[in-house]
Amino acid sequence: MTGIEAVGSRSRINATAAVRAYLATCGIVLLLMMLLGLTMRLAQAQWIDVEPNLFYVVMTMHGAGMVGIAGLGGAAVMWHFVRRYVPVSTAIFVANLVFFLIGAALILGAGFIGGFAGAWTFLYPLPGHSGGLWSANGAAAYMAGLLVIGVGFLLLHLDIARGIISIYGGLGAGLGVKQAFGFAPEKDGPPPAVAAATMAAISNVIGIVVGAVVLILSLVNLYAPSFTFNTLAAKNLIYYFGHTFINVTIYMAVIAVYEILPVYTHRAWKTNRVFYLAWVLSTLMVLTVYPHHLLMDFAMPTSILVAGQIISWLSGLPVLLVTAFGALTNVYRSGLKWDAAAGLVFMGVAGWAIGIIPAVADGTIPVNSVMHNTQWVPGHFHTYLLLGMMAMMLGFMTYLAGPKSPSHLAPAGVWLYLIGGTTFVLAFLAAGSASVPRRYAVHLPAWLAYDRAGSIGASLAVAGALILIVRFLVSLRSPIDATP
Amino acid sequence: MNTTRALVPVAWGMLWIARAPLEHEMALHMAVQLPLLIGVGYMLATFLRPYEPRWFAESDWLGIPGLLLVVFATSFWMLPRMLDLALSEPWIDSAKFASLPLLAGLPLGSSWPRMPGLGRAFLWANFIPKLGAIGGLYLAAPTRLCAYYRLDQQAAAGIALIAVAIVLGTCWSVIVFVGSPPFWSRAGIRRQRARHEILEAGE
Ligand code: HEM
Ligand SMILES: [Cu+2]
Questions:
Q1: Closest approach of chain A CAs to the CA of B170, in angstroms?
Q2: Which of A43, A101, A135, A182 is in the most buried spot, having the most CB atoms within 10 Å?
Q3: CB-CB under 8 Å, A6 with B180
Q4: What residue ranges do the domains of chain A occupy?
Q5: Quick one: pLDDT band at residue B80, thresholds 50, 70, 90?
Q6: In sequence order, which residues have a C-beta less than 8 Å from that of residue B187 and are 6 or more positions away?
C-alpha cells in the first residue's frame, strides 16, 4: 500500500476488488453486446433471419449497452490509476457500479420486454411516436435507465474532481493550465492520469447535466403529449450529451496507455508543456464540437455549423497527437518485451489515431452531405471504439490479470481481435463509400458482400475478445494482492 | 449583535410590504421574492445555530433530511399553480411567507454546513440545470402556465431564470477551476510537492 492509498481510502471496501468487479461486468457485457452486434451484421448479410422490428431493438440495446460499458470501462481505468495521486472514495466508485446495474436492467427491460427501439440517441420526439411498437412505459424505462446511470457517473466525476481540488487546489491546476501556458515549471505539473481525469470530470459533468435536462423534458412529453418543445433544441442537447459522453470514454481509457506502457519500457511518461496544452485545448473543444452531428439540419445557424466543422477537424487531434507521439517515443528503443497487455494498449493508440481520419473527413460539410447516415459512420466510430477505446480497456484487463493466468492463449486473442476487428471496420467503411445506408435492417443484394465480409471479421473479433475476457475472469480466482 | 438579529424580522416585514410590486411581475416573483424569502430563513439559521440542540444536529445525518425538506418546499412553491393561488388567496400568500423562510431557508442554513462537499456539489449540479430547464420551459411554452401572468411576463420569467442559471453556473465553474487557494499561490505549489513526496516515499 502506498502512502497515498493509506491517506486516501477511508472506506472498508477493497479498491482492487471494486476495480475487478467493474472489469468483470465490462467483460461480460462487452461480450453480450458484441454478440448483439454480430447478430445485426449476420442479419444484414442474410445469413440469419431477424425480424426488422427486433433488429431495431437489438440496435438500440447494442448502442446503449456499448456506450454504457465504454463509460464503465473507462471509469475503471481512470479510477484505478488516479487514486494513486488523489484521494477518492471507494464507496462512491462502487455506488456508480450499482447505479449502472440498476440502469442497465431498466434499459434491457425497456428493449427486450417493452420493445423500445428508438436508438440509443432517443431523439425527440421519436420515443413518443412508436407507431404502436412500444408503449410510453417502455420508452420511459429506457430514459429512466439513462438517468440512473447518469446519477452514478455524476457522483463519480464529482468525487474525483473533489479529490483533485484537494491536492492541486483547482481543476485548472489539475489540468496543468499553468504549465500549458508556461507560467509554472513543467516538473510541477500534474501526472497524465490527473490531467486526463480532470478533463473527464469537466466534460462529463456538463454533458451529463445537459443530458438529464433533455431526458426529463422527454419524459414529461411521453406522459403529457400536449407538452412539446423545440425539436432542434432537443437534438442539440442530446448530441451535446451523447458526443461528450462517448468521447470522454476514450479520454479516460487513454490513462491505461500513460500508466501501463511505462511499466514495460521502464521510462516515465514525459509530460511537457505541449502535453498540457493539448489537454487544455481538447477540454475546450470536446465541449464545443458536437454540432458536427447537426450538419444536415438546415435550420441550424450556419455560423455554429461552420464552427462545429472547424473544431471537428481539430478537436481530437491535440491529445491524440501527444499521445501517439508520446507512445512512440516511450516505446522506441526501450527494449520492451511485447506481450498481450502492451500490445493491446499500443493497438488502442493506433486504432484511435486511424479511426479519427475517416471521422474528420465526415465532419466536413461537403463530405457529410454524401456520407451522412451511410455505414461510413459506424465504420469510423467502430474503429476508434472497438480498436481504440476497447483495446485499451482489454489491455488494462490483461495487465491486471497479470502474467500468472494462462498466457499462451492471450497473443492469439490479441491477433484475432486485431485482424477480425480490422476486417469488420473496413467492411463498414467500404460499404459506406459505396453509399450503403446505416441503420437499415434489410439490405439490397448488391450490399451483401460487404455485410458478409463484415460478419466474418466480427466473428473473429468476438472470438478474440472471448479469449481475453475469459482469461481475465479466470485470473479472478487468484488472491487480490497478487495483481499489480 | 442585537441589531443584526433585527435584520430578520425587518427583512421579513419589508418583503411583506413590498408584496404587491414584487408579485406584479412573474420574473420578480420567482427570481427575487422567493429567493429573498429563503434568504431570510437562512439568516435566521445562522443566528439560531448556537442554540441548536445536539440531538437535532445528530439526527440531521449529513444534512440530508434538512436538504430534502428544502428541495420539497422550494419545488412546491415553484409550481405555477401555487404562484397563482398566492396571488388570489391572501392566506396562501401568508403560508408562502411563513413556509419559505421556515421550511426552506432555515433548514438550508442549518443543514448545508453539515453536508459533505460531494453532496453540495451534487446539489449544485442538479439545481443549476433545473433552473435553466424551467426557464427554458417558460420561454418555450405556447400557453400560459399561470392564470395571473401574461405570456410575455412568463417569457420574461423564463429569461430571468436562465440568466440566474448562467450566472450561477459561471461562478461555480470559475471557483472550481481556479480553486482556493488559487493554484498559482505558493501554498498550492507547496501542497502539491508534499503530495508528490508522500507518493515517492510510499513506492
Ligand atoms: C464485434 C464487435 C461489434 C459488432 C459486430 C458491432 C456491430 C454493429 C452493427 C452491425 C451496427 C449497426 C450498423 C448499421 O447501422 O447498419 C452497430 C452500431 C453501433 N455500434 Fe457496434 N458493433 C461492435 C462493437 C461495438 C463497440 C465496441 C461499440 C462501442 C464501444 C459499438 C457501438 C455501436 C454504436 C453506438 C452503434 C450505433 C447504433 C445506432 O445506430 O443507433 N459497437 N454495431
Ligand atoms: Cu461527435
A1: 12
A2: A43
A3: no
A4: 14-475
A5: confident
A6: B181
Q: What span, in angstroms and rounded, lies between the C-alpha atoms of B79 and A212?
A: 20
Query: Is this structure's pTM higher than 0.95?
Result: no
Q: Is the CB of A467 under 6 A from ligand 1?
A: no
Q: Using alpha carbons, select from A310, A438, A324 the residue that is nearest to residue A380.
A: A438
Cα separation, A77 vs A233, in Å, equals: 34
Chain A hits for B129, CB-CB cut-off 8 Å, are: 209-210, 212-213
- Whether B54 has a pLDDT exceeding 90, the answer reads no
- Are residues A378 and A440 in contact, defined by beta-carbon separation less than 8 angstroms? no
Give yes or no for residue A1 having a pLDDT over 70: no
Q: What is chain A's percent helix, strand, coil content, to nearest 5?
A: 75, 0, 25
Count of helix runs (H) and strand runs (E) in chain A: 19, 0
- B185 chain-A contacts, CB cut-off 8 A: 169
Atom 31, ligand 1: residue with shortest CA distance: A66
Judged by its nearest atom, the ligand closest to the C-alpha of residue A242 is 2
In the numeric block, the cell 463509460 is attached to A71
Residue that is written with C-alpha cell 432537443 in the block: A234
Say yes or no for a CB contact (<8 Å) between B121 and A172: no
Q: Which residue matches cell numbers 502535453?
A: A275
Neighbours of A112 (CB within 10 A): 13
Q: Flag if B179 and A172 touch (Cβ within 8 Å).
A: yes
User: What SS3 class is residue A368?
Assistant: helix
**Fold of the CATH domain A14-475:** Cytochrome C Oxidase; Chain A (1.20.210)
Give the model confidence (pLDDT) of B151-188 as tens digits: 888 889 999 999 999 999 999 998 898 876 555 556 65
C-alpha cell recorded at residue A321: 497527437
Return the HEC string of A90-132: HHHHHHHHHHHHHHHHHHHHHHHHCCCCCCCCCCCCHHHCCCC
Ligand 1 contact via A58 beta carbon (within 6 Å): no
Q: In B, residues 76-105, which contact A (CB 8 Å cutoff)?
A: none
Cell numbers for B138: 417558460
CA distance A126 to A128: 5
Give the closest-approach CA distance of B119 to chain A in angstroms: 9
